[in-house]
Amino acid sequence: MDARSIQGLYGIADAGFCPELALDAKVRAFLDGGACAVQLRLKDRPASELFQATRRAMELARGRALVIVNDRPDVALAAGADGVHLGAEDLPVEEVRRLAGDRLIIGATARTLEDARAAIAAGADYVGFGPVFETRTKRIEARARGLEELARVCRELGAPVVAIGGIALERACDVARAGASAAAVVSDVLGAPDPAGRAGAFVRAFREGKGARP
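Predicted structure:
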């Protein structure tokens, strides 16, 4: 397990978005499109349900992508996930690192360069920086940071940066050119008529953006 393998599309299988689509189908769509990682986001669901969903995702993703659990390091460890992603209201990064040792890749949400530096210093392997653009998928009490601020964080942090917030296919190249290791996507893929096809198009666009970097 290595956060440096987080390159390209970081899919978020959010149980609350398009609830008519089964969670396993969301995971498969990201995997079939070539995502490097899939994060399971099951807000307000029982730990037992998240545990079972993580076990299924691990089977689906074996040898193909990382499986990251949102918020719950205990469930990530119990289910054998590759990592956990922590928000501002979750356990502190340093405590999760102490608990997990090197058994989990740890990601942390950051709104500023200072936040990002603090997260890496505390033991995070990567940061999710944003929102880069306005997003309606998740209520975020923070302004859109924009590509210039994203580029600064990517340039100065010295650790993988996953861009988050409002990232659509049309913006994938720009996000890659700004230096992001990957882009976290929910609605642009899961809300498409052909989610797997959309995920594949996103992966190709991101690679094109990386190739276009000076």
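Summary: The radius of gyration is 16 Å.
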